[in-house]
Specification:
The structure holds two protein chains of two kinds. Chain A has helices at 9-18, 33-47, 51-60, 72-87, 94-132, 138-165, 169-173, 176-200, 229-240, 253-260, 264-278, 283-299; strands at 208-213, 248-252. Chain A is mainly alpha-helical. Chain A starts with 8 loop residues before the first helix and ends with a helix. By secondary structure, chain B is an all-alpha fold. At the A-B interface, helix 2, helix 3, helix 5, helix 6 and helix 8 of A face helix 1, helix 2, helix 3, helix 5 and helix 6 of B. Chain B: It holds the Pfam family EII-Sor. Chain B: One of its GO terms (cellular component) is plasma membrane.
Chain lengths: 303, 270
């Protein structure tokens, strides 16, 4: 009996590293096929020695493939296990390997998009961006480091999980875990997105709604305050006790809206954008349109 | 700009271009790309602020399946280069500089989209070459062509970035200075609203009847400004865990089929 060929941890790490480039030759014909094959090459080299076997393996892995780039990792893990069995003489045919790949890529991509693109990245991005907008270089650093730690940990551990579970993993796919992860991510995502809409979409309506002359005693009478240390102290005390800074209370439209529901206009704008997107209006058109609205609104004094 | 700076900028642009397709390290995200361009040109803080502002707009841009989102890579790299060219010889930067750069970035994101599609089409003959290499069992050739395809994606951004660098700084500054205040202010206001588009894209992808209440909670809680984003994240995770656990308790369907409203059945039990 021939010696059993096994993929070492080094081989598997090499595959995981190469899967970083899975989208490198993304093309309209077979999408991630080139990158998939590129990632499998260390394993193919190790498992198959003859030219015919290698050629067949390379061709087998140049078939159509497309999923979320990080989700490819567990699928690679399973495929590595199958290829290892096959190289050792198990009756694993091309159809089985192709079936596992295709069977896993669809459902799993449905998990990857909401989790990575719609939850983790917007959250880390918003966290980093809010720091960065204040000029702190920590923002980009936190985003970059946290993202890559999460990404690499996910890719390596799910590939290992796939490798150990082998073809059994396809049974797990129908289990509740994936659904839980997807649903949990959407809940978290929706929650945080609402907060982002409230805090980061900025619209300020300039028009003044009212100018009210305040009663005497409700505002600070600056002319009666001497410009001395004592006077300043008195002034600040008055501010603290809630006196207005000027005798006329100016209320803008924005103040009124904020008293009603803070963030109402950003919310309405977001809902409008969602509706337009659903109507198949291109995001680019909406973005350009909003710039036009901003400029026109500013010129006429509304914004 | 000296030769070392030019090389570094083109290198950053190359990384951003590669990442625009790979989507792994996130060098193409504004937060990273603009910061790096700022770093290598000596305008770190301006780069960071531009990156942060653009990131807010680009939060929802993601490549899904064959669909391509507006191109963050070209938008970040080119607008950052224009920003630093405009700052050449000046100290510090203003809010206006940033909002002008953002306004320039948006049409660039569209232009980048076209370039991406061109390169993805060019990759079709590349995989055919890989096919014939596979026929011969020549894995080195498969690897080589895959790497060439990635390089092609990198050049997609590196070439326009390099070209931009050769526009003299005073021409860029002149063009930027010629923009009237009502235009740049208006663009800044537009930039504040454009953020909503990215969020809308993401919400459209995730929203189901089941998760809308969490949106409502998030919206109301966010008005309490004492809670930081991290705090909100913790709240969100906690809510998700509570919900998932509760929906399992009420689940009589078994296996988490998720038919009907799990909360409803819990309420009925009481």
């Amino acid at each position: 009996m021939a010696e059993k060929i096994e993929l070492t941890k080094k081989d598997r790490l090499s595959v995981a590293w190469r899967s970083t480039f899975i989208q490198g030759s993304w093309n309209y014909e077979r999408m991630q096929n080139g990158g998939w094959c590129f990632a499998m090459i260390p394993a193919i080299k190790k498992l198959y020695k003859s030219k015919e076997d290698r050629s067949a393996a390379l061709k087998r892995h140049l078939e159509f493939f497309n999923t979320h780039p990080y989700i490819a990792s567990p699928i690679l893990g399973v495929t590595l296990a199958l290829e290892e069995d096959r190289a050792n003489g198990a009756p694993v045919d091309d159809v089985a390997i192709q079936g596992v790949k295709v069977g896993m890529m669809g459902p799993l991509a449905g998990v990857g998009d909401p989790v990575f693109w719609f939850t983790v990245r917007p959250m880390l991005g918003a966290l980093g961006a809010s720091l960065a907008m204040g000029g702190s270089v920590l923002g980009p650093i936190i985003f970059f480091v946290a993202w890559n730690v999460i990404r690499w940990a996910f890719m390596w551990y799910t590939q290992e999980f796939g490798y150990r579970a082998g073809s059994k993993i396809t049974e797990d796919l129908s289990g509740g875990l994936l659904q839980d992860v997807t649903k949990g991510a959407s809940i978290l995502g929706m929650f945080v997105l609402a907060a982002l809409v409230q805090r980061w979409v900025s619209i300020n309506f300039q028009p003044i709604v009212s100018r009210v002359q305040l009663d005497q005693g409700a505002y600070i009478e600056w002319d009666k305050i001497p410009m001395t240390g004592e006077g300043l102290q008195k002034a600040f005390e008055q501010v603290n006790s809630g006196l207005a800074l000027s005798p006329i209370k100016v209320t803008s439209l924005q103040n009124n809206l904020d008293e009603l529901i803070p963030g109402l206009v950003p919310l309405l704008l977001t809902l409008l954008c969602m509706w337009l997107l659903k109507k198949k209006v291109s995001p680019i058109v909406i973005i350009l349109g909003l710039f036009v609205v901003g400029i026109v609104g500013h010129v006429i004094g509304l914004l | 700009m000296n030769i070392v700076t030019i090389i570094l900028v083109v290198l950053v642009a190359f990384l951003a271009g590669m990442e625009g397709i790979l989507d792994e390290f996130q060098f193409h995200q504004p937060l990273v790309a603009c910061t790096l361009i700022g770093l290598v040109t000596g305008h770190l803080e301006a780069g960071v602020v531009l990156g942060g502002s653009l990131q807010m707009i680009a939060l929802g841009w993601a490549n899904i399946g064959a669909a391509v989102a507006p191109d963050a890579a070209l938008a970040s790299v080119a607008s950052a280069i224009i920003l630093v060219l405009g700052l050449e010889g000046k100290t510090g930067f203003t809010k206006g500089d940033i909002s002008t750069a953002i306004a320039i970035a948006v049409p660039l994101a569209v232009a980048g989209l076209v370039l991406t599609m061109v390169v993805r089409t060019l990759a079709v003959p590349v995989v055919h070459i890989m096919d014939s290499a596979a026929e011969e069992g020549d894995y080195k050739k498969v690897e080589l062509w895959h790497i060439l395809a990635v390089v092609m994606q990198g050049l997609r951004i590196a070439i326009p970035a390099g070209a931009l660098l050769f526009i003299p700084a005073d021409v860029v500054q002149g063009a930027l200075a010629a923009m009237p205040a009502w235009l740049t202010d208006g663009m800044a206001i537009g930039g504040g609203m454009v953020v909503a588009v990215g969020y809308a894209m993401v919400i459209n992808m995730m929203a189901t009847k089941e998760v809308w209440p969490f949106f409502a909670i998030g919206f109301v809680v966010a008005a309490i400004t004492e809670i930081t984003l991290i705090g909100l994240g913790v709240l969100g995770v906690a809510l998700a865990l509570i919900y998932l656990n509760l929906s399992k308790m009420g689940g009589t369907s078994g296996g988490g089929g998720g038919h009907g409203d799990p909360l409803d059945s819990i309420l009925n039990d009481y």
